[in-house]
Amino acid sequence: MIAAAMMLLCSCVREEEENPTPGWIDEETYAGGRLGTTFNFSASAYQDPSPAVANAGMVSQFKYGEYFFERTITQNNAPFNGLGPLYIRSSCVACHPGYGHGKRMERYSADDWGNGYLLVITDQNDTYLSSLTGMPQTKAVAPFKAPIDESQIQISWLPYTDEWGNRFPDGEQYDLIYPEVTIPEQAYYVPLQVGGQNIPYSNVRVRLESTIGVYGVGLIDAIDDDSLKAQYVKEEMEGARINPAIFANGEWVKTYGNTDHPLRYTYALSRGPLQDAPGSNAIWNITNVTRSNKRAHYMTTAYATVASRDPEVQEQFYAYFPEWNKTGNVEQDIYNYLTSTELPVEMSDEDYVNFMVWHRGLAVPAARNLSDITVQRGRQVFREIGCATCHRPSWTTGADRFTDPTGFFADGDPRLPRYPNQKIWPYSDFVQHKLCMKNDIRTGWCRTTPLWGRGLSMICTGASDRLHDCRARNTLEAIMWHGAADSDARWTVEKFRKLNKSDRDAVVKFIESI
Amino acid sequence: MKKLSTLILVVSVVLAMAAGTMVQRLFGAAHAIEHVYHSWWFAGLWVLLAILAIVALVKKRIMKRPAVMGIHLAFLFILVGMIISSFAAQSGRITLAPDIQASLVDSDHGNWTLPFSVQLNYFEVVNYPGTQSPQDFVSIVTFNRDLQDTISMNHIARYGGYHFCLSGYSPDGEVNLTVTHDPWGTGLNYAGYLILLVSMLGFFFDPHSRFRQLIKGGMALLLLAISAEAQALPRTLPRESAERMGRLCVNYQGRICPVSTLARDFTTKLYGSPTYKGLTSEQVLSGWLYYYSDWQQEPIIKLKGGEAVKSLFHTSSSYVSVNDYIDNMGQYRLKMLDTMAATDPRYSSLMAVNEKYLLVVMLYGGELLKMYPIADSVGNIGWYSHSDPLPLQLSDDEYLFIRKSLSYSQELVLTQNYASLDTLLEKTLSYQKQRAGHTLPSDTRLMAEQIYTSIAPSKTVSIFCIMAGLCLFFLLIVRKPSSSTIFSRVSLILTVLESLYLLLLFSLRWYVSSHVPLSNGYETMYFLALSISALVLFLHRRMPVVLAVGPLLTGVAMMVAMMGNASPMVTQLMPVLHSPLLCIHVATIMLSYALLALMAILAVSALFFMNHLDQQRMARTCQIIAYPALFLLTAGIFIGAVWANQSWGTYWSWDPKEVWALITLIVYSALLHGRSLTHLQHPRPILIYSIVAFLSVLITYFGVNFFLGGMHSYA
User: At what angle do helices B656-669 and B612-647 cross, to 10 degrees?
Assistant: First the structure.
C-alpha cells in the first residue's frame, strides 16, 4: 500500500519537476480539468456549472440547487424556509460574496454584504465554549433572543511590524494588520461554559474565521484517499511538521467521524467527504433549515435552558408558536421545541439532492495568462523558492467513487456529478501547517488553502482579502504573513525576501493568474 | 466725474470679488463668504453702483428702449435679491431620526425652529445596479404630518418656503438635511432671470439693434497633446470578429440596439473618444471582455477634475487604469464616496470618475450584457445576461447556452479559434432573432444604427471642421470677401458636405430612435449645427459673408455637442450631472466662451497684421460678437443658478467659478457700453480690450480648475 503510494508520489513529483512541455499551458489552463473548468472570467466566474454537470444531464438540478444557495431563507416562505429560531446568516450567499472568499470587515454584522466571518469563541486552551454552537449565532427570530448581541462585538485592526520592519532588503515596504475581537460579557445571553462547566469571562478568547470560495470543492472530493495519504507520507518523510492529531508515523491518527476517510475540508480539517462536509452542513446550521436527516435545531441545550426560562420569551411564545402549546407548561414547551429532534422537514430530499448537485457541480475558473512571460517567470520562481511545497500545484483525481458518511447518498450515487481522472490545479496539499501568526487561528494548525481562482476575487466579490481572517489585504501581505520565525513557511519567505522586486512581482502576478 | 466714480466702483467690485476668490483659496469658503461676499462693505459697493447706474439710465432716457431697460432692470432685481439673500436668508442643518418629528434647526448663528415639523419616513441608499456602490440617496419625509415628499441627490424638497437638501446620513439611519429659507431673495432673483430672458429675446427682435448680423462664432482650439506612444496595445479580438460581435443585439438602457452602440458609448465614456489607439470601439469592448488582465492595467480612463482628483490617484497623468482605482491595500481609492460626500457638490467630478470604474464593474457583472431574450409565460420578453438568475421554466439547453455563453466564447478566444467564435456569434444572433421575435428592431433599423454609430461624429471630425472653418474664416475675413472667390467656393463645398453629413446623421438618428432627435442638449446642438449650415446655404447668395463664418460655427456647434456628450449616458447614473438644465448651462457658456475666444483671435490678428481700415472693420466685428457672447454668458450663468437651486437648494454659492464668470460678464460688458465709455469707441482700444478681457475667461476656465478649486473644478 505504502509502496504503491510511494510510486504514485514519485511519479507525481517527477511530473512536477519536469521542464514544462509545450502543452503545459493548455493543460494547466484547465485548472479544474476538462470536466471542471469554466472560462467565464466575469463577475459570475465562480458560479458556473462544470462541464460534468452538463455531460451528466443535471442542468435542471443544478439550476434548482442554485436557488437554495442564493435565495434568502425566511421563516415561512416554502421551499426556502428555515431560520428556526436562531441563525448565523439568512442566506448562503451572504457569507460567500460572489461565491468567493469573505471580505475583511470593520465590524461584525450578520447583515453586512460580504461578511463571511464566523466567530470562533473558545477558552484559553482553544476549546470551544459548549454553551454556544461551534459557529455562534447572532440572529434570532421573535420571540427568541440571539445567544450573542452582535452590536456589542468590537473588531479592531491593529498594525503589526514583523522582524524585518515590514521592509524588503531593497527598501520596498509593506503593511501588516491583524484583528483583535472583543465581545463584552454582557453581550452573551447564555452562560460561559466549557464542557458544561462555567468559566470566568477572562478566559474567553474570540477570533474570526472567514469563508473561502465554494467553487471546485467537488474536484477536491474526487481526489483519492490514497493520494492524500501519499502526500502526508511524503511530507512526513521530508521532515515536515505534521499535526499529530491527524497523522503520525505513516498512518492516519484521525479520520472523518467513524469512517476511514481522510479529512480534507476546512481550516481545522474537521470534515471529510464532501457529502457531509461544510456545504451540506451549512445549509442546515447556518440558516437552520431542517431536512429529513437533520430534524433538530442547530443549538445548544444551554441556550434552550436559558431561553425557556426567559419570562419575555415565555410571554410571547404561544403567540408565535401556537402549535407548540402541548403541555400547558410554557417553559417545558419552549424547551421541547428548541431541543426537538423530530421537527417538521423544511427542505425536501429532492431539494437537498438538487442543492448537492449544484454544490458538487461548481466549476473552477481557468487559469489566465499562462502564456505571459512575467507569469511564467512567477510560476518558475514560485516553484523554485518552495511555495509549491505546500501549495502543491496539481493533483490527478481518482475514479471519484465518492461516499457519504451520513448515508443519504450511496457510494458514487448517480444523482451527483463526478470528476474521474482529471488533472486539476488547486495549488494546495490539503495538509495543515503552522504559520504562527500574531492572534493566530484556533490551534495554530491551518489547512493550506487552494489558490485556484483567487485572482478573480476582485471582479467576483469586489475584494481580494486573503488568509483565514482576511487580514491580508493583498497577495504580498498574505505572503509576508507566512514569514514568522517559527512558521513552517519561514524558509520560503526568506528566499522570497531575497528575490529582486521584479521576481517578487512576478510571483504575485502568477498567484493572481491561477 | 460721475463717470469716473462709476468706473472706480466697478473696478473695486471686480477687484473685491477677485480677492474673494483668493481668500477662499487661502482661508476657505466660509471665511470668504463672511468677510467678503456677505460683508456690509461689499453690499455697500454694489448698492452705490446700482444707484449710479439708475441715475445714468434715467439720464440717457433708457425707458425708450424697453429691451435695454429690461436687461438693466433685471440686474437690479437680481442684485436686490442677492442682498436680501445674504442678509435675510436663514439656513442650517436639521437631523432626522426615523419616524420622529423634528423641527429644531442647528446653525452657526444659533438654533432656530421650523414653523412646522419634519419627519423621516424612509431612507435608502440606492446602489448602482449589481454593485455595492451608492448611486443615489433617497429619503422620504413628511412635512407638518401632512405632505410627503422625496429628497434625493438631484431633488430638493420645498415646503412653506423652506428648501430641504440632503447633506449626510449616519449608518443608524439618521439623515442630515440642509434647510434654507429665502423666499424673497430667490423670488426676486427668479423675477430678474425672467425679465432678463424676455429682454434679451426682445433685444434680438429690436429693429434698432444690430443683432441680425451678429451670429458669428468661433473657438480657440485647446489643442490636445496626442501622445502617440509606440507601446504594445492590449490584446483584443481581430477587427472582423469584434465587428461581428458588434452586430449582436443587446438590451442597453432599456432599448434593444446593436452591441456596437454599447461599445461606442463604453469606449467614449472611458476614454473620451470612440476609438482607442487605432482599435475600434467593438475591439475595445471585446478586449475588456476577453483580455481583462491586459486592459485592467491600460491607462485608458480619462480623469476629470484636475489636480485634486489626480492626487487621489497619486498620478500626474490624465489617464489611469482600472488597477489604479485600487490602492496597494486592495482598497478602493474613492471609498469616501460611500459616505454622503457624494452629495457634496465639490465631489461631483469624483462621481463621474467613479462612474467610469463602475462601468467596468457593470460589464463584468453582466449588467451591460443583457443579450439573451427570454419570454415569460404571457409572452413578455425579458433580456438577460449570462450572470442573471434565469427563469426556472427555461429549458436546460437554453439555460446552459446562456449561462455558459461567456465561458464558451472565452475558451474559443483563448485558443484563438476565431472561426468557431464567428459561428458562435452567428448562432447567438439567430437565437436573438428567434426568441425576441417582433420586439427585435428590424434588420434595416439595426443596420441604420450601426451605420450611425460608425459615422457618428468624433472629436477628429469636429476638430477638422473647426480647423477648416478657422482657415476659411481668416482667408475670407482678413482679405475682402469679394476677392476670394476660390475660398468662397471651397467654403460652399464644405458647407454642402457638412449639411449632407449632418442631415444624414439627423435622419438616421430619427429613424433609429423613432423620435425627433431634439430631446437633449446633444441632439439640439447637432440640430443647431445642421440649421447653421442650412442657413448658410440659404443665405450665401445675398450675404456672402456667411460663407466666412458658417463652416467655423458648424464645427464649433459639433464640438460643443461632442463635449457635452463626452460622457454619454451609458448608465442612468449621476442624477446631479444629468439634468437637461445642466446640459444647456454648459452648452450656452461654452458657446459664449467660444465667441469671446474668437474675438480675442480676431483682435490679435487685426492688431498685428492689418492696416487701419481693416482694424476698424475688425473692431466692429468684435463689438458685434460681444453681444451674443455676453447674452449667452448671462443666460448660461442664470440657467446654472436655476439648476443649482433645484439641485443644491441655493442659487448662488460664491463659488470661484461663479464669481469669475460674473467678473467676466462685468469686464466684457464695457464693450457694450461704448456710448458711455468714450475710450472704447476707437478701434485699437477695442481690439486691445478684447484681448486683455479674454484673460478673465482664461482665469474662469483654467485658473479656477487648476488654482482656485471649488465645486466647478470638474467643469
Answer: 150
The alpha-carbon gap from B365 to the nearest alpha carbon of chain A, in Å, equals 5
Find the chain A residues whose C-beta atoms sit closer than 8 A to any C-beta of B: 29, 38-44, 47-49, 54, 57, 59-60, 63-64, 67, 70, 113-114, 174-175, 366, 368-369, 372, 458-459, 462-465, 473-474, 476, 513
Q: Is B12 helix (H, G, I), strand (E, B) or coil?
A: helix
Pairwise CA distance, residues A82 & A283, whole Å: 10
- Which stretch of DSSP H or E encloses residue B143? strand B134-143
Distance CA B697, CA B595 (A): 11
Give the Cα separation of B605 and B599 in Å (integer): 10
Tell me if B414 and A175 make a contact (CB, 8 A cut-off): no
C-alpha A60 chain-centroid distance: 26
Q: Is B414 near chain A, with CB under 8 Å?
A: yes
Radius of gyration of chain B (CA): 28
Q: Is B403 an 8 Å CB contact of chain A?
A: yes
Closest alpha carbon within chain A to B133: A462
How many angstroms separate the CA atoms of B258 and B441, rounded? 10
Q: Which of A44, A366, A473 sits opposite B386 (nearest CB)?
A: A44
Rounded to whole angstroms, how far apart are CA atoms A412 and A399? 9
Partners of B132 on chain A (C-beta within 8 Å) are: 113-114, 462
ipTM over 0.95: no
Exposure string over B245-283, b if 16+ CB within 10 A, otherwise e: bbbbbbbbeeebbbbbbbbbbbbbbbbbbbbbeebbbbb
All three cell numbers of A12: 507525481
B556's CB contacts (< 8 A; 6+ apart) are B217, B218, B219, B466, B469, B591, B594
DSSP track, A244-285: TTTEETTEES--STTSSPPP-BTTTT-B-SGGGSHHHHHHHH
d(CA A184, CA A193): 15
List the 5-34 stretch of B: residues with Cβ below 8 A of A. none
Q: Given its phi and psi angles, is residue B276 left (phi above 0), alpha (psi -120 to 50 degrees) or beta? A: beta
User: Which residues from chain A sit within 8 angstroms of residue B400, using beta carbons?
Assistant: 49, 54, 59
R_g (Cα) of chain A, nearest Å: 23
pTM (predicted TM-score) = 0.72
- Count of CB pairs separated by less than 8 Å, A with B: 86
Within a 13 Å sphere around the CA of A237, how many CA atoms are in the beta-carbon half? 13
Q: Report the 10 Å Cβ neighbour count for A301.
A: 13
Per-residue pLDDT of chain A (514 residues; tens, 9 = 90+): 444 444 444 444 444 444 445 688 889 999 999 999 999 999 999 999 999 999 999 999 999 999 888 888 888 877 788 887 999 998 888 889 889 999 999 999 998 888 999 999 999 999 999 999 999 999 999 899 999 999 999 999 999 999 999 999 999 999 999 999 999 999 999 999 999 999 999 999 999 999 999 999 999 999 999 999 999 999 999 999 999 999 999 999 999 998 999 999 999 999 999 999 998 898 888 999 999 989 999 999 999 999 999 999 999 999 999 999 999 899 999 999 999 999 999 999 999 999 999 999 999 999 998 988 999 999 999 999 999 999 999 999 999 999 999 999 999 999 999 999 999 999 999 999 999 999 999 999 999 999 999 999 988 988 889 999 999 999 999 999 999 999 999 999 999 999 999 999 999 999 999 9
Chain B partners of A513 at a C-beta cutoff of 8 Å? 293
Helix (H) / strand (E) element for A86: namely strand A86-87
Are the CB atoms for B90 and B180 separated by under 8 Å? yes
Name the phi and psi angles at B175, rounded to 5.
Answer: -120, 135
